[in-house]
Amino acid sequence: MKTTLELPDELLMEVKAVAARRRTTMRSIMEHALRRELGELNPARKDRSALVEMNAYGFPIIKRQGRGRLASEMVYALQDQEGEE
User: Fold this and answer.
1) Can you point out the beta strands (E) in 1-85?
2) pLDDT band at 57 (very low <50, low <70, confident <90, very high)
3) Which of 25, 35, 57, 80 could link 40 by a cystine bridge, Cβ 3.0 to 4.6 Å?
4) What is the per-residue pLDDT across 34-49, written as a single tens digit (0 to 9) for each?
5) Helices 9-22 & 26-38, crossing angle to 10 degrees?
6) Where do the structural domains in the chain lie, given as residue ranges?
7) Model pTM?
């Protein structure tokens, strides 16, 4: 479904910049933000140690939960949680 939003210029510029950094679309950024705001990404998981471990080189490895696929929204949610800490 298509809709029209009126956003402040500085917010639109920030969305465009985030989309470019993540190599994704503004639509994806907006959808992720709305889902997160509405609670569909299960933000109750605040314990990152259950989701991420560090490898021998110091890079984070995201643990797979269940049999589902790892979606980019899950990675963005972890990035957002890290930014809040």
Assistant:
1) 52-54, 60-62
2) confident
3) 35
4) 877 776 555 554 555 5
5) 100
6) 9-84
7) 0.46
Would you give the distance in Å from CA 65 to the centre of its chain? 16
Q: Is the pLDDT of residue 29 over 70?
A: yes
Task: Classify each residue of 50-61 as buried b or exposed e, where b means 16 or more C-beta atoms within 10 Å of its C-beta.
Answer: ebeeeeeeeeee
The first and second tokens of residue 85, run together, are 């800490």
**Calpha distance 34→67 (Å, rounded):** 25
Residue 44's Cα: distance from chain center in Å? 14
Q: Give dist(CA 23, CA 25) in Å, integer.
A: 7
What's the rounded Cα separation, in Å, for the pair 80 and 52? 14
Identity of residue 59: F
